[in-house]
Amino acid sequence: MRARPFRPTGVQGAEPPGGAERAEPLEDGTGRGGGGEQTKDQRIAAVRRTAAAARRRRALHLTGCAALLAIAFTAGSIAIDAVHDNTATGIAPASAAVAPGLLATGDLDTGISSLQAHLRDQPRDFSGWSTLGLAYVEQARTKGDPSRYPQAEQAFKRSLALKSDNDQALAGRAALAAARHDFEDALKYADQALKVNPYSERALCSRVDALVELGRYTDASKAADTADDRRPGIPVFTRYAYVHELRGDVRTARRVLDQALSSAVTPGDIAYVATQLGQLAWNQGDYDKALTHYARALAADENYVPALEGRARAQAASGDRTGALKGLQDVVSRYPLPGPLVELGELYEAAGDQVRADDQYALVDAWTALARANGVNADLDTALAAADHGDKASALRAARAEWNRRQTVHTADALAWALHVNGKDEEALPYARKATATGYRSAAFLFHRGVIERATGHAEDAREHLRAALKLNPGFSPLGAREARTALKDLEAGK
After folding, report:
1. Which of 132, 133, 137, 139 is nearest to 114 (CA)?
2. End-to-end Cα spacing for the chain
């Protein structure tokens, strides 16, 4: 069963929310997208139609890729000569458009529209281009739309062409590389930005993210300390907390997040930090506390998707299957991303509804095709999903590729599990041990290790780690927790 850890922070986590549903692309900085914008509902409907049709033909990966490439190229097409055709109305003053702080206000729609209008009048404004690139990265992240990444890349390139030592654009390229899971480049650009401006908050945060995702945890801890010294604030605090959580220091992580929440003022910051606290509590099996934190997050922003997803997971773990299904259906209807899709699929599968479960797993493949078409390395997502709900051989190929790129606790766990489902348990065991070596408290990792130890004849170790998984977070996965209980019962009976 896919027992995917729910990452609380880092590049795959969430930042304070923005909102941009009808922003116009200015991919290369000279005009609007020639193909026109597809609405959120149209994109999701297209993905769903593609996945369903492909599943029926047992060729999801081929047809899904073709259709999603078409969607991506339509949404992200570059029309260099279209600038004079822009007739957008309701443009904010240029002075507001070029302020990077606008990205944190939640009014990302207005910010992007204003930036586009301003840059048509002032195309040599390097700061405006970098801010537009950051807005596209934020839009891709909050809306689950990777077709924004090529647009962000074009904006950053334009900014750096105008001013090569532009720390804002360099930090933006670091954030973009991290979003695409190219962590070597993320580290490179973050270091370049920090040479220009050692106090760049975005570069400091991206540097921590990159080191964490490259498995350089000691360096990441030092980078978090440096960031805290130079630019203490909510983005840095959450990274600092996650670095400590990865080392098993949950108490410090919780203390830092509590302090961050006490200093949060804007609805976006409150929702963001409260959600991190909710995820931390969920990871430790404290579902009541998790639900309390998610309630606070949603009181600040009722549409904050990470909080909606987290609440549904906590409801599922608490036994509220109806609430969990409703919540996850709402999330994936708007943002069909791999994590909630698999969680929803497993809830259906646990209830015996395999048809609906397969629909969700098919959509994961569709999302992966879209992500890859827009430069995102999706091997970790592929390995985690396919190991339990797809092509096991492709899961192993993806997991090996990701381990070769970066050696983290998450990639070690993914490779261990992919090896296990392919019957290579002896090879899997060292990786399962690596996944738990830092002290990171993950029930999913303990479950995987226990299952692999059982398969390799280490019965006592298997009992120890399966018990630990269920004690830490007894509802860590709709299917995985059930399998863990069954395996432990069999081990106890065989004593």
Report:
1. 132
2. 25
